[in-house]
Sequence to fold (666 residues):
Amino acid sequence: MAAAKPTLTDSLSFCLAQLTAAAGEGQGGEKDLASNETPLGRALLALRTRHIKAAGGIERFRARGGLRPLLALLRRAAAADPAPSEAGPGSAPSSVASAASGSAPSSDSTHSVASTLSPPVRLRKTLDLALSILANCCTEGACRAEVRRLGGILPLVTILQCMKTDSIQNRTARALGNLAMEPESCGDIHSAGAVPLLVESLTACQDSQCLQSVVRALRNLADSPQHRLALAQQGAVRPLAELLAAAPDPTLTSALVRALLELSRGCSRACAEQLSLGGGLGPLVSLTSHPKRAVREATILILANLCAQGLVRPALGNAGGVEVLLGELRRRRSTNGASSASQQPLVRAVCLLCREAINRARLRDAGGLELLMGLLRDPRASAWHPRVVAALVGFLYDTGALGRLQALGLVPLLAGQLCGEAGDEEEEGTEAASWDFPEERTPERPEAGSFRSLRSWLISEGYAAGPGDISPDWSPERCPLPEPAEPVSPTPGQTSLQTPRTLRMQGRSPAASAAEEPWGREGPALLLLSRFSQAPDPSGALVTGPALCGLLAYVTGAPGPPSPRALRILARLTCNPACLEAFVRSYGAALLRAWLVLGVAPDDWPAPRARPALQSQHRELGEMLLQNLTVQAESPFGVGALTHLLLSGSSEERVACALTLPFICR
Fold:
């Protein structure tokens, strides 16, 4: 069989000559773009199907200078079809067309507008081929850099605005998506106004291939926190969520999930609002059981990212997100090869879900307390321990949850956290605050929240006709606070240790309260321990060796003055009659005397170490606590309890009682 006869289009030089000629004709304005389209079309088709797809073809095309005439051809198309006079609200400015063309509009503008609404078939074919060649070339970094240098972004944005044919929109979005892989080009695309046009294409286009190209372009444009915020503020998230809710084909679903994953990184308020309003929460939760692993994992990360916004967490819990995230975290922790990096976003999300009461109830019912306790016991998860303890503070007034946590052994873990090292977790912003108390958004000048509530109540009850009848000077923030008493200056080189007795004698002004209650790394753990100590009988949890050792180690080892809450916990325990027997059985009185009065910690034996300069304050605290136990031991109840231990207790209890009596009985 004879070989196929070679044609002129087999030569790259011939195709480039045709392309250059077609691009140069527009400068004189003598011929229309479609008048010589048959040889140009053959050359473009050969470039796309043979020359570009050959090995090293894109590099040869760029080295031979093919990008310049190709972009000139696209500029001619953009100049021949300017945007309609009535642009949509999301359209780019019509001046982009003239800027892209580099020349003033021609005299036959009426014909140009008509061609915009119904472009010729040959012109559409030429644009399809040229855009396809450009999109293929932009898969290589050198071509992307040269296209940006030659100013090829503005013509693409203009074509995206003018030509609403699905095939042209598809290839233009594909070219922009490839260009957006370079950070510099991504910024230029944002500045050129392409985002509103891509968002418009999401709602207007019906072709799945075109939608996939637009979605990919938006995903590549979300390359930085600033660009992600810009995309969300320009309404790019809601159409994606609406498309996802419409149950598209599997390929488009995968593209949508990948785009939403990029847009939800460092999730902004606008992103969370749009995703919720677009009805995307339910479909995302459903996709966590998708057969493709990539879709499942991306969806899980999207849900975890959304938890950073308090306004969407209740709706996420209603959609079943709490159970999904708990189940995934439990699965990854049970997998031997799972890294801590894969668990970190899920741990953060679960802890943030504890900030709303409705989600705490779901988390408790789904076994989340046991999962959080497992994290606290795991030494490999020590970096997350402060975050987990802070999350458990949300259950502070949930009696059932506190009982369960106490049964799981939370108290000794909290005591161990008091002197542990701080984790490396970053602090959450104000937008991650609990949505149980949503912030009031008002254009008025800032006022005290209590004053706003009072003013609203007075107006609703008819005591005031309107806001103008109530002077802002009534606000509590306008009332001068009493001057706090001058504190007694401590001895130079020493730091004063305040006891519960001195704390009660100080003023109660907000400024003084803030100074009395420092909230440091140990704040959440101390708050939970204080809550446990307020139980009628906290002896089983707090009057034990590990709990007392943790509290005393914190009080004596804190770099600065310890939190007054820790001192109040110790005072509360020694003043509770129900704890007397526990102090005897656990040798707690001897521990208090040795550690605080004598300055010898269990770890110091047999070679005592040098104690800090607060030894006198510690001795004073220890003597006060032992005095509290003495009062309990000499009461009728205490006498009976100690007598029972000496006469009817086990041998261990009798020994412990005999050793404790010299410390608590005069």
About this structure: The two ends are 120 Å apart (CA to CA). The first helix runs from residue 12 to 28. The chain has a mean pLDDT of 80. The CA atoms of residues 526 and 566 lie 7 Å apart.
